[in-house]
Amino acid sequence: MVRLPLTSAEVERGQRLGVLLRRARGDRSMLEVALDARVSPETLRKIESGRVATPAFPTIAAIAGVLGLSLDAVWAEVSPPGSGDEAAGPGSTARARLAS
């Protein structure tokens, strides 16, 4: 399967996600958070640095849970204002919106 290049919007969203996670992690070590979320420290480092702009939903859900962040709060923070994504409709879930 060929992976299409990321759009500039996806790259920017990944960067905003990284900033949010670093800020939420605060003084906790990257190793502690990664182990608590059951992801590798390298994965967390790549997400926080923006090198992985579109991480898997379960990975983000696990990290957000460890950091005490709701997925709705994560999505609201990483979605650009006026993108139309925030009004995805009543049948949508945070998982579907993060995966888009």
Describe the structure.
Helix 2 packs across helix 3 and helix 2 packs across helix 4. Helix content is 60%, strand content 0%. By secondary structure, the chain is mostly helical. The two termini are 18 Å apart. About 12% of the residues have low confidence.
Write a compact overview of the structure shown.
With 100 residues, this protein is an all-alpha fold.
Secondary structure: number of strands: 0
DSSP summary: helix tally? 6
Q: Which band does the percent of strand residues land in?
A: under 5%
Order of helices and strands: HHHHHH
Note the main attributes of this structure.
100 residues; mainly alpha
List the helices and strands and how they pair.
Layout: H1 8-25, H2 30-37, H3 41-49, H4 57-67, H5 71-78, H6 94-99
Helix pairs in contact: 1-3, 2-3, 2-4
